[in-house]
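User: Hey, my collaborator sent me this sequence without any context and asked if I could get a structure. I don't really work with proteins. Can you help?
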Amino acid sequence: MQQRFFLSPIAVFILAILLALAACKKDDTVVIDPVQPSDAEIISKYLHIDLNAPGNYANPLYPVHYDANVLASDNAPSINTVTDNGALLGRVLFYDKNLSLNNTVACASCHIQQKGFTDDKRLSEGFTGGLTGAHSMRLANANFYTGERMFWDKRAADVEDQVTRPIKDHVEMGFDDSAGGIDSLLRKMRKLEYYPVLFKQAFGTSDITENSMKLALAQFVRSIQSTGSKFDEGFAQVFNPAQPNGAANLPFPNFTQMENTGKNLFLAPPNAGGAGCAGCHQPPTFALAANSRSNGLDAGETVVFKAPSLKNIGVAGPYMHDGRFNTLNEVVEHYNSGIQLSPALDNRLVGPNGQPLRLNLNNNQKQALVAFLNTLTDNSLMADEKFGNPFK
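Assistant: No problem. I've predicted the 3D structure and written it out in structure-token form, which is a compact way to encode the shape of the chain:
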């Protein structure tokens, strides 16, 4: 008769532990699952940002002359108002060279904070050294352009439509159809461990899509607002909402006599002895009026060009969509004596005789206008860390 052996419950338990340990051993090493890094640890490997303190993008402190009428011109759609986390993600995207095909350029390569978010080259260099088709536009106060359409030639419907087009351009950042398009970029981004963290914080999901990229980049661009120039400091001292133009016509206490003269020339229409600049470039944002047309650069021009806000215009030239003018003196002289007749010309630049307007400014007046334009420089914006490069 075969003898049977039975293990006690304790023996069975000990045997199970030994078998489990044996299964975990390999070359006498116990395999232990690694501890996953926290979101903060992932971010700290690559970026100088704090997930718990993204920066105040959503609720900037406006000076008194940015009243309800001015703020009502913000072109952000209700589905994409600026949030702190959304703009922070947009800032990372804006500065990330990984968004170009060969990791050499970012949005910030052509829109340089220290140069007023433009480039001091006539045309900017793309990811392989090719030149862009137009001069880099200044970005400050883009949110206050009520015409909404973006790029010099208005080919984009709004900021959201504009922000990923350079990424997909065959010269600028390289992710065109021949390189697999935006889907190729999205696959690349999903391998960058900081993006799932940032997209989840901004939008509640770690999914990375072109639409969410557009939303975040647009939030960051709209948050680049210029309210700290010498002009803003002076206007805040005299502002009176009960007065015409908020009392902008009064002398600013912090301005020189020449700067105040230039301001008056800028604000007053030609039939009142001024240059009429404010008819299109609207203080205090200096964004372009939505109904503005072209400015007479070339005879016979049929394309209606737009322009960026004049804030920080004195920081870096060149100027115009093709960068043809190197200095503000040349810009002023164009409006003084160089406007050409064309089908696209703005009617405010046409004289009573149906010919291009001629201001006939003297040298002192032209220098005063340049002096005033330099008061639109906002050094605080160009030094603000929350608009700077977040990468280590």
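In plain terms: The mean pLDDT is 93. You can pass these tokens on to your collaborator as they are.
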